[in-house]
Amino acid sequence: MQHDPTCERIKLLLSDVDGVMTSGGVTYSDRSTGAGSIESKTFNIKDGLGIRLWIESGGKFGVVTGRASAIVERRAEELGIEIVRQGVSDKAPVVRETAESLGLAMDEVAYLGDDLPDLAPIREAGFGVAVADAVDEVRRSADWVTTAPGGAGAVRELVEHLLKHSGRWGDALAKY
């Protein structure tokens, strides 16, 4: 696999949730207790392993999402994701602040998104990535576009791309 200096620089991978880590659908159901509705999301299990591979390979992973959900907190906890920013309407400043808090420059950040709120962080990141089914403006602004749509392994595809093109894939596979 050919080394890519851009991939070698990436230390922090930040991702949107809805439309990237999920297909973008949000399901609500009524509770018979009258306490409100229950929200559900479906996450791709291969993305989960990809995130763990990234973290185990020494990378930092986080989510920056416009919506706030207890389900996202739970999934983050399961995967060991320590950076969870929810309810974010303007993502670019949060992405910059997150990088700064870790002592990283923006060229050491990859950002994965799918819709218009992701445009600015995709443009500012050292490696801006769009999922295959992202809106046109996001795909055109990205440095790279996954072949997988959101919720169908796009995060895993990006992690493998970064690890393979930075010479870290063999180490990531060593425990298997």
Automatic annotation (TrEMBL):
Residues annotated as binding substrate are D18, R52, R67, R75, K91
- Output one GO MF annotation: metal ion binding
Q: Which GO terms describe its biological process?
A: lipopolysaccharide biosynthetic process
**Per UniProt, where does Mg(2+) bind?**
D16, D114
* Top-level taxon of the source organism: Bacteria
Which InterPro entries does the UniProt entry name for this protein?
Answer: CMP-NeuNAc_synthase, HAD-like_sf, HAD_sf, KdsC_fam
The keyword Coiled coil appears for this protein: no
- Which keywords fit this entry according to its UniProt record? Hydrolase, Lipopolysaccharide biosynthesis, Magnesium, Metal-binding
Recorded catalytic reaction(s): these are: 3-deoxy-alpha-D-manno-2-octulosonate-8-phosphate + H2O = 3-deoxy-alpha-D-manno-oct-2-ulosonate + phosphate
Pfam families the record matches: Hydrolase_3
Task: Work out whether the entry's keyword set contains Metal-binding.
Answer: yes
Per the UniProt entry, the signal peptide is none
Identify the EC number(s). 3.1.3.45
Q: Which cofactor does it need?
A: Mg(2+)
Supply the NCBIfam families for this chain. Answer: KdsC-phosphatas (TIGR01670)
UniProt family annotation: Belongs to the KdsC family.
**Subunit architecture:** Homotetramer.
Protein name from the UniProt record? 3-deoxy-D-manno-octulosonate 8-phosphate phosphatase KdsC
Q: Which organism was this protein described from?
A: Pseudobythopirellula maris
Name of the gene encoding the protein in the UniProt record: kdsC
